[in-house]
Amino acid sequence: MIGIIGGLGPLAGIDIVRKIIEESNAENDQGHLPVLLSSQPNRIANRVDYLLGLEPKNPGIAIAEIALELEQAGASVIGMPSNTAHTSPIFDAVLGELNSRGSQIKFLHMVEEVANYINEEYQGKSVGVLVTNGTKNNGLYKNIFNTKGIPYIDTNENLQSKIHEAIYDKTYGLKHVSSPVTNRAHDALVAAIQELKGQGAELIVMGCTDIPLALREKSYYGILVLDPNRILARALIKAENPEKLKVELH
């Protein structure tokens, strides 16, 4: 069974379950893989606040506790639709807690899966990433991409501020107004893609799981936009039962 740690934010958990269904080979209801979503945002501290030093409690401990609950319920592989929660200070705490508790669960790393996918399908292309300040400041994508040999196009301070505000601004950001998404948040993210393209980006990664709520097209300004939630969904299916994974159509 596939386990999903949701609530980071809540719609991202629902989104990845939908994408697991979409990416699965199944002729009927019974042919789909079992998936258990645990969405308990009340238990997990704010990831960005923790990385910025505004939250003392490491969210990784609560994430590990939920992972153990999923394992006890029968999950053999787990995915977590949150980019920021995969930064080293948080994800290392998750793995450390699981190891100390004797867990045997396979916990996929979203950003590692994205990097592997890019190297398999788009090797050598320069990549721009839309992320929160916490994810950028921690160097999550930049460090992993550098390790994997993926050319990384960085955002300057002004552009990064606009991306972060499109996600977190209390009047129009995706974390606060997501159903429907505001035009201001959508337009800011599309403009960011255009600016990154001007800096040489050949691919864009939506490095916050709330961004696919706003950017629903496969490409903007002729540049392909990759969805880590869909990439992780496919990796989870492959880990659980490779025969259930649909052939990807480009």
From TrEMBL:
Molecular function, one GO term: amino-acid racemase activity
The alphabetical list of record keywords is: Isomerase
SUPFAM superfamilies linked: Aspartate/glutamate racemase (SSF53681)
Which EC number(s) does the record attach to this protein? 5.1.1.-
Which Pfam family, just one, is annotated for this protein? Answer: Asp_Glu_race
Q: What class of enzyme is it?
A: isomerase
What InterPro entries is this protein classified in? Asp/Glu/hydantoin_racemase, Asp/Glu_race, Asp_race
Could you tell me the superkingdom of the organism this chain comes from?
Answer: Bacteria
Entry's family note: Belongs to the aspartate/glutamate racemases family.
Query: What name does the UniProt record give this protein?
Result: Amino acid racemase
* Organism field: Sphingobacterium zhuxiongii
List the lineage, top down.
Bacteria, Pseudomonadati, Bacteroidota, Sphingobacteriia, Sphingobacteriales
